[in-house]
Amino acid sequence: MAVYKRSYKGYNGAYTPEWSRFRVLTRYGSRGLFKSKFLTGFFAVCLFPFLITAALIYLNHNATILAMFKFGKNVVNIDSSFFSQYLQTQVGFAFILTAFVGPGLISPDLANNALVLYFCRPFTRTEYVTGKLLVLATLLSYITWIPGLVLFTIEGSLSGWHWMIANFYIAVAIILSSLMLILVLSLLALALSAWVKWKPVAGALVLGVMFFGTGFGAAVNGIMRTSEGYLFSIPTLLTIVMHSLFRLGRFTDLPPAEACIALLIISAGCLFLLGRKIRAYEVVR
Amino acid sequence: MTTPVIQLDHLGVRFGKRDILTDLTGTLSGRSIGLLGPNGAGKSTLINTLLGFYQVSSGTAQVLGLDIRTQIQQIRAIVGYMPENDAFIYNMTAVAFIRLMAELSGLPTEAALERAHEALFYVGLGEARYRKLGTYSLGMKQMAKLAQAIVHGPKLLILDEPTNGLDPAARQRMIRLIQEMRDSKDLHVVLCSHLLRDVEETCEEVLILKQGQIVHYSNLEEERRANKKFVEIEAGGDQAGFAEALQGMGCECAVAAGNRIKAVLTDGMEIRDIYRVAAQRDVQLRRLNYRRDTLEDIFMKAMETETANGRL
């Protein structure tokens, strides 16, 4: 169908493999993210803790500076608690980043009835959700497990292989905690984005679920004198599991297994909501 | 034997307790097929079912030989769909949007970009292809919808009310494009509309639905050919003798009220033969018309028909 001919002609060229097509959505979704100056600035801020932590690790191993400022043997103890603290800081940033980016992923497609155009092609709902989820997952990876592992590697290279082998569980904890955080936050943001077509409201809802859930959980704990109220607080549930993975002992009375199950139920609920909303047409029965 | 474009095999669709499509059975093989019916007849539901958007409650259907129950992804790969309602990503430029749609259909990045430009030029949006879709007029949006439906070179193009909201000039442009694509022989067209004129101008076959059932199937090409054999004559003079003479030539004739004679011409008989007989009989021909059984006549007759189990 050459332009100058302006007549219809079919397509006889090559096709991309079906399994790879969800990446098209991730590519297009990621492309527009950094058009926002606020997001670009905030993303840069999210990397500050990494730079500060990396500097601390370096200082900890620099005998000259330690002697110069009379820090003694070291500035901080670099152990699982240190890496856990770093990741906890990033969790806060991840919440805000998710509230800002997440709602813009699905709600515009729903508001503009664009889903029908995706699904009239050889493109499934699972691929759609995966493609959109990967936009958030990639972004959150840049501020959680990727810099976390870089910090672990820096410390390992400065402390030696023995430290690395002895503390290998920290690397595993960084990856598992981050993946859990990314999965829960991304699914929650996508589900709320799918249910509320208006982007600002969806963003407010994401933050609302985090903070309202935490407040409600604390109220339940206070009134009922129990720790089951934490089940309503996603940030606390994540922290409980993280503490367990970093071998820091119990964060609350709520067992980590229960927290894990609660997070799985929340994720399953989000998938259910997505399954209900991500359709070409809604069937009115 | 050519593969039918659409084969319906006792197809039924139910939403809750409501039967939306009931026991549809038939084969459609034309290059361009019109789906007609009043609002709520089930035209869009049929299309959406063929695309796998609605679950089939009974029977099945095939699109170009592929079963909608088991091969829906393959069907979607060879179908282009232009939905009735606005369906866009408003803050994208037309070329980015069409390219995205092409890539989702499986075209590699470069080919998708090339085809996106070509499709937009083809539908007449070449100059506006870098504008955001949100700034487009209604007519331009319809054209952009058409572009996204053809960008991946489908074998079957399904158009749901393509001329909705178009001014006469834009409508003409849309009809011309549909005719061109139909005549290109590269794809089949299914046009769903309640506008009889659109269907009449673009389709070879018509399927008329009413209350979720098929009430009439018509091959417009054959109808048009058949219509040429029916003539209606208004004559002055010896009408009975004139009718007899025509019968003598093998025509079926009936004298109706108002000096009118209806005749079915035999094969090989031409209009000049009627003039010759009229001259011989000294009959004055005041009017001579081919019977024009328009799509509107067919449609109105179909609407009067009781639904007949949804079969052709």
Put the structure in a nutshell.
The complex is a heterodimer of chains A (285) and B (312). By secondary structure, chain A is an all-alpha fold.
Description:
The complex is a heterodimer of chains A (285) and B (312). Chain A has one domain (21-277). Chain A is 71% helix and 0% strand. Chain A has helices at residues 22-31, 37-46, 48-60, 63-68, 80-101, 103-111, 115-119, 125-141, 145-159, 161-166, 168-195, 199-224, 234-245, 256-277. In chain A, helix 5 (80-101) crosses helix 12, helix 11 packs parallel to helix 14 and helix 13 packs across helix 14. Chain A is globular and about 80 Å long. The model of chain A has no long low-confidence stretch (mean pLDDT 89). Chain B has 312 residues and is of the alpha/beta class. Chain B has helices spanning 43-50, 72-78, 94-104, 109-122, 138-150, 168-183, 196-202, 220-227, 239-248, 271-281, 295-304, and strands at residues 6-15, 18-28, 32-36, 58-63, 66-67, 79-82, 156-160, 188-192, 205-210, 213-219, 230-236, 252-256, 260-264, 284-290. A six-stranded mixed β-sheet of chain B has the order 6-7-8-3-9-10, with helices on both faces. In chain B, strands 2-1-4-5 form a four-stranded antiparallel β-sheet, covered by helices on one side. In chain B, strand 1 (6-15) and strand 2 form a beta hairpin. In chain B, helix 3 (94-104) crosses helix 4 (109-122), helix 4 (109-122) packs across helix 5 and helix 9 (239-248) packs across helix 10 (271-281). Classes of the chains: A mainly alpha (285), B alpha/beta (312). The interface between A and B is large, with 39 and 50 residues.
